[in-house]
Write a structure and sequence with these properties.
Order of helices and strands: EHHEEHEEEEEEHHHEEEEHEEHHHHEE
Number of helices: 11
Shape: globular
Largest sheet: 4 strands, mixed
């Protein structure tokens, strides 16, 4: 997947939040402020100040006049993946974001999928790749960001982001059906972390490839909340976590009682929560604890301090969905480890050598850059239009 993009840099934490209502309240507070107070609330950086003139983000109807002169109405918040398995909301206004990576916004939307490479942490447990259907910020819970690799180079799922000739090579080696989604499934199932980036072994046995693709499709479907199957992930046997005791208004702690599989949020109780969900980690960091830790204690009077007074009901729903996803992924970790062993031991470095011999590696330089999108009109700074 030659074209990769570095993680986004928001520059100011108040432009993202776990709920959309908070973002609208923050926008209104900033827009109503004046003079030095507005400047302080905005939190200027070298990349963005209230006077910055920038283009609109692709696909977003936001103002391009300088924010200090004409903020305009609050843009509709959009869903983004801030960290692995942690979807939040973002104000999609380019005037507020230091480095938004417009090339990613240009190709976002169904059927696009983004592969987020996790930074290498020696000895850390967890997958090397995480897939999301919404735009990823690309942050790593271990603080070591990797790269973002879109599955397609153009909008509407056109032109797979794969080295030229790779699909033909896979088809000849493993048989029909070796398309871009099959490649994605295999990488999610078999990728290994390394200091030089993710390593993806290519098995010599077509049966190992078929088993890995089948497993990977299930993992991708779980990670993307059912984007492939069209149905929300469910635990086997009809099991699902329930709220046994209401979550308090502001829970301060999250703990796990392994004996009866109960997740405790203050006095609140959620069960059954499989141990695989509680122990699931990315970059060595427990995902559930990281998800819960987001509501921090911001500076009083700042925009980050604006938030819900009580735990919203939608957070509970998101938590229940997250538990299901992590349980499904956690129960397949042993199977995934066996698959990697079956792929790596017989193959060694033959996969890379075969790709070089076929002229697939290294990929052409042009495939490492964003594709031109000639039919995509976008508004530039101060209302100008750009042709890309």
């Amino acid at each position: 997947m030659p074209w990769s993009v570095a993680p986004l840099r928001l520059g100011r934490p108040w432009v993202a939040a776990p709920d959309a209502r908070t973002l609208r309240a923050r926008w209104d507070r900033l827009a109503s402020a004046e003079g030095p107070e507005r400047e302080a609330l905005f939190r200027p950086s070298r990349a963005r100040t209230p006077s910055s003139a920038v283009a609109a983000l692709p696909g977003q109807r936001t103002g391009t006049a300088r924010w200090s002169r004409e903020p305009g109405p609050c843009p509709e918040p959009v869903r983004v993946a801030r960290e692995p398995f942690d979807e939040q909301w973002l104000l999609p206004d380019h005037r507020l974001i230091d480095t938004a990576r417009p090339e990613l916004w240009r190709v976002a939307g169904p059927p696009q999928l983004f592969v987020v490479e996790q930074g290498y942490v020696p000895g850390a447990a967890g997958p090397a790749l995480v897939v999301t259907g919404v735009l990823p910020e690309g942050r790593s819970p271990a603080g070591r960001p990797g790269r973002i690799r879109p599955l397609f180079r153009r909008p509407d799922g056109r032109e797979p982001n794969l080295a030229p000739g790779l699909l033909a090579f896979l088809g000849a080696r493993y048989g029909p059906g070796s398309d871009a989604h099959a490649w994605l499934a295999w990488t999610v199932a078999a990728a290994l972390p390394s200091p030089a980036g993710c390593r993806v072994p290519l098995p010599g046995d077509p049966e190992v490839w078929a088993a890995g693709v089948a497993l990977g499709r299930e993992l991708v479907d779980a990670q993307t909340r059912g984007a492939l199957s069209g149905t929300k992930p469910r635990l086997p046997g009809g099991r699902r976590p329930y709220v046994r005791a209401a979550v308090p208004a502001r829970p301060e702690t999250m703990t796990y009682e392994a004996g009866d599989g109960t997740l405790c949020l203050g006095e609140g109780r959620v069960s059954p929560v499989p141990a695989e969900a509680w122990e699931f980690r990315v970059g060595g960091v427990r995902v559930l604890e990281r998800w819960f830790a987001h509501p921090a204690h911001p500076e009083p009077g700042s925009l980050e301090a604006i938030g819900p007074a009580e735990w919203p009901q939608e957070w509970t729903s998101e938590l229940l969905d997250l538990i299901t996803v992590l349980a499904l992924l956690g129960t397949r970790e042993r199977e995934r480890a066996r698959l990697v062993e079956a792929a790596v031991l017989p193959a060694g470095t033959a996969g890379r050598a075969a790709l070089r011999a076929a002229g697939i590696l290294p990929p052409p330089d042009r495939t490492r850059r964003p594709a031109s999108v000639l039919d995509h009109q976008e508004e530039g700074p101060e209302g100008q239009f750009m042709l890309l």
